[in-house]
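Z., the sequence and structure:
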Amino acid sequence: MIALLVTVSHAFACDDVFYSVGLDPYRDELHRALDQDDLLPFYDVLSEIKEKVQCLDQPIGTDIWADVLVSIAMVQYAKRSSFEGVLSAALEANEDWTRQMLSQHPLHDWSEPYTPQEGLAAPKRVTVWVDGVQSDVIPLQGVHLIQVQMEDEWRTVFLTEGEPLPASMYPSELLPNWSFDADVGVGIMSRMELWTPSVDGDWLSAGSGIRPLWVLLVEGETRSPWGPGLWWDLTAAPKERSLPSAYAGGMRYIGDLGLGIGGGFFQARAETMAGPSDLAVAQLRVLARVQRERSHVVGALGGGPSGVHGGLHLRRVRPMGPIHQDFGLRLNAEGAVLEQQETSRDVRTWMVGATLWFGLGG
């Protein structure tokens, strides 16, 4: 009968965190069903417990869980079914409480030699509790409450007799793997460029003022199993054989928020006597990324010895099977102070740009 509980848990959604003390009413109902020798409500209560414990975000109390296990063992004993594994688990969790519950029961003095738990070795950086007791092993079967903690994430499963360990509790699924996301797109960049040929000169339009460029965008990131990852962002103008900007660095996510730091450069254009000149302006860059399933928002700021920049990138994602389709808008502002070689004077340049782009990623 206990095996009938197997299928009830997987679609359960947690509205609130569940605590060990929340099992008290269910424990009382188990005792009431035992006193009345009525197994139907007993199994109904176990089904409810199986759902509720999935919402635990702390180790279960060993006394209350030993109580549940002892109740199951008493039913199995009365049915002349195998009770040894369940009762052994109860004794391992909390022997004093278990003996106290069995004080008037034939199983009070039952014991068997301790045998090491068989199962999968718990991976590093994951904490495992079995029936409320910290463990180095994840059991593959038996009647157990198995809990794993991965930083702020908890997973809990109540294994019943004959139920295999769910795939979500295997070590390969508990630790995140390396993830890789890269996007390549094409777009049109429109830049307004202003410059002054001297420190005290008026701002003038550089070149044609608003300069459209067809650009190739390459951006992406990787996430490592232990959290931090890498990001990169490159804008190329193949027709002009130039790189308007290129940045890369490290990233760490806290939920949906990614915080990154890195470096790179943007190209600043200044008019000289020999004509327009594009010079790379080195920058440190910090960025914040809010990443959701279908939209990304990135804010970036940077600075260096000869310039500053800021940007806001909006991106919409449309999944298409193993790949996704992207389109977005980038707004950038960049300023630099460059030396004009002919006059040994500084040239101040300021650029404001917008890029509409479309691309594919995976």
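The longest helix spans residues 62-78. The chain has six helices and 16 strands.

Let me know what you think.
H.
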